[in-house]
Design brief:
Blueprint (H helix, E strand, L loop, with lengths): L6 E6 L12 H10 L4 E12 L12 E7 L2 E11 H4 L6 H16 L5 E5 L1 H15 L3 E5 L11 H12 L3 E4 L2 H10 L5 E3 L21 E6 L8 H9 L3 H4 L2 E6 L5 H8 L8 E5 L3 H10 L2 E4 L8 H8 L4 E4 L13 E4 L4 H13 L7 H12 L1 H17 L6 H7 L2
Parallel strand pairs: 1-2, 1-5, 2-4, 5-6, 6-7, 7-8, 9-10, 9-12, 10-11, 12-13, 13-14
Antiparallel strand pairs: 3-4
Helix pairs in contact: 3-4, 4-5, 7-12, 11-13, 13-14
Length: about 400
C-alpha cells in the first residue's frame, strides 16, 4: 500500500552540531529515518537565558542558521529570553517564540502538515503554539526521565500540561515513562513508541575479538546517575583471577570523569580501565563491535538506546531494571539487576566471564532490536501514528482534532 507523503516539522531543543557534539543524536536519527517516507525539516531551538540587569532584554532571534543535513532541512534558532520568564513568570513563552519562529520556518521550508515535538519543555511548548498557527496537528514524543523534572514549579508544570494536552498524540519512549506521565496527569492518552535504533549502522563485527581477555564496554554521560562508580566497585569486588581477565573501556564525557579516573587508580583497578572521552558515532560503532560485553548500570533510563545499539551489534548485555531496559533486555540476550547494587553487578559479570556461551544468543539480540526498533519498524509504526491523525478526522481543523483527542 502506498503511503501518503507528508510535510513533517520536527521541533526540538536537542540536535547535533559542531558546538554541541552528538547531543540529540537520537532526534537526528529519527529525522533521517522519517525523511525516507516524508518531507522533513527540523526547528532546533536554543534558548539563552539572560537577567534583567544584563542590558539585553527581549530580542527576536539572537542568531539563525539554515543547513541541509542530507534530506532534512535544519533551521537553527538561538533565542535570548529573560531568565525570569524562562524560570516561570511568563506562561506565554511558547506562544511568543512560535510567533517569532513561524515566519522563518515558512520562508525557509514551507508550511507543515504536522508537527512532531521532542520533549515537553521547551519544544512541546513551542510546538503547541506552532500547531495553532499552522493549523497542524502535533505529535509529542516525551523522553524526559525522571518525568518529574518537568514539574518543578507551578508554571513549568502548567506549561508541560499544556504541551501534553494540546497534542493530538503523546508518545512515551517506554512503558515505564508512560506510567510516570499518567501518574501525574491521569486520563491522558499516552502511547508507547521506542526510539529508533540504527541497525543499518550498528551491525555485528566481521570477525570475533581474537583476544583471550574479556573486553567490557560502557557508553554514557559521565554523571553519577549513570552508575559507573557502581560498575567500578563491582569490578573491584571480583575475584582476582576473574578481574585480571577484564579490560573495561568507558566512553563518554561529563563532570564525574575526574572522580571516576581517581577511583580507577585504586590498586585492584589500575591498568584495567580506559577512559575514551566523548565518542563520535563511527568510534562508538567500533567499540561496540570490538567488545565482548556491554554494561549499562544506570539508576534511571527512559529507554537506553546504547543497549539497543549493542544488541544490534550482537553483544550480550548487563543492565539495570531502571525503566526502559527491562522492556527489551531478556534472559536470552543478557542479564538485568537492580540499580545501585555493586554486589549483584559483580556476580553478573563473574557469571558471564565464567560461561559466556551459555547465557546469550547474538542472533536473537539483533532480531529483537531489528523487529521492534529498527528503521523499517520504527518508520512503519510512526507513519501509522501520523496517518491516524488525518484518517480519524480528515475534514476537521487540526485545532479541533487536538482538543477532541483528549
Amino acid at each position: 500500500m502506498k503511503r501518503t507523503r507528508r510535510r513533517v516539522l520536527i521541533v526540538t531543543g536537542w540536535y547535533p552540531s559542531p558546538e554541541t557534539g552528538y547531543s540529540g543524536i537520537f532526534v537526528r536519527d529519527q529525522a533521517q529515518v522519517i525523511a525516507r517516507q516524508h518531507d522533513v525539516a527540523v526547528l532546533a531551538v536554543s534558548m539563552l537565558p539572560v537577567g534583567l540587569r544584563s542590558g539585553t532584554l527581549w530580542r527576536r532571534v539572537e542568531g539563525m542558521a539554515v543547513t541541509d543535513d542530507g534530506p532534512v532541512r535544519v533551521i537553527r534558532c538561538r533565542q535570548r529570553v529573560l531568565w525570569e520568564d524562562f524560570a516561570g513568570i511568563g506562561s506565554s513563552l511558547g506562544v511568543r517564540m512560535a510567533r517569532w519562529f513561524a515566519p522563518d520556518v515558512e520562508r525557509e521550508w514551507g508550511r507543515p502538515d504536522l508537527i512532531h515535538a521532542h520533549v515537553s519543555a521547551p519544544a512541546g511548548w513551542i510546538a503547541s503554539a506552532l500547531g495553532d498557527r499552522f493549523d497542524a496537528p502535533v505529535v509529542l514524543t516525551e523522553h524526559t526521565g525522571p518525568f518529574d523534572v518537568l514539574l518543578r514549579s507551578p508554571v513549568t508544570r502548567r506549561r508541560t500540561e499544556i504541551a501534553l494536552r494540546s497534542s493530538a498524540r503523546v508518545l512515551g519512549v517506554s512503558d515505564a515513562l508512560r506510567r510516570q506521565i499518567l501518574a501525574r496527569f491521569p486520563g491522558l492518552d499516552v502511547s508507547v513508541l521506542g526510539n529508533v535504533v540504527r541497525t543499518d549502522l550498528f551491525v555485528p563485527p566481521a570477525s570475533p575479538n581474537p583476544s583471550s581477555r574479556i573486553r567490557m564496554f560502557t557508553l554514557a554521560s559521565l554523571v553519577r546517575e549513570k552508575g559507573i562508580f557502581a560498575l567500578l566497585e563491582a569490578i573491584e569486588r571480583l575475584p582476582a583471577a576473574i578481574r585480571g581477565r577484564i579490560d573495561l573501556r568507558i566512553g563518554g564525557s561529563g563532570p564525574a570523569r575526574e572522580g571516576l579516573e581517581a577511583y580507577a587508580r585504586r590498586p585492584a583497578l589500575a591498568d584495567r580501565c580506559a577512559f575514551l572521552g566523548g565518542l563520535e558515532r563511527e568510534a562508538a560503532i567500533r567499540e561496540m563491535q570490538a567488545c565482548d560485553l556491554f554494561v549499562l548500570a544506570s539508576e534511571a533510563e527512559t529507554f537506553g538506546i546504547v543497549l539497543g545499539e549493542a544488541m544490534a551489534c550482537g553483544k550480550p548485555i548487563i543492565a539495570t531494571r531502571c525503566g526502559g531496559p527491562q522492556e527489551f533486555v531478556t534472559d536470552e540476550v543478557g542479564c538485568l539487576i537492580e540499580p545501585s547494587d555493586p554486589d549483584a553487578l559483580s556476580r553478573a559479570i563473574e557469571s558471564f566471564v565464567s560461561a559466556p556461551e551459555e547465557k546469550f544468543s547474538a542472533s536473537r539480540a539483533r532480531e529483537i532490536i531489528e523487529a521492534r526498533f529498527g528503521p523499517d519498524a520504527f518508520l512503519a509504526n510512526l507513519t501509522s501514528v501520523y496517518d491516524s491523525l488525518f484518517a480519524s478526522a480528515p475534514n476537521v481543523a487540526s485545532s479541533t482534532l487536538r482538543t477532541n483527542s483528549r
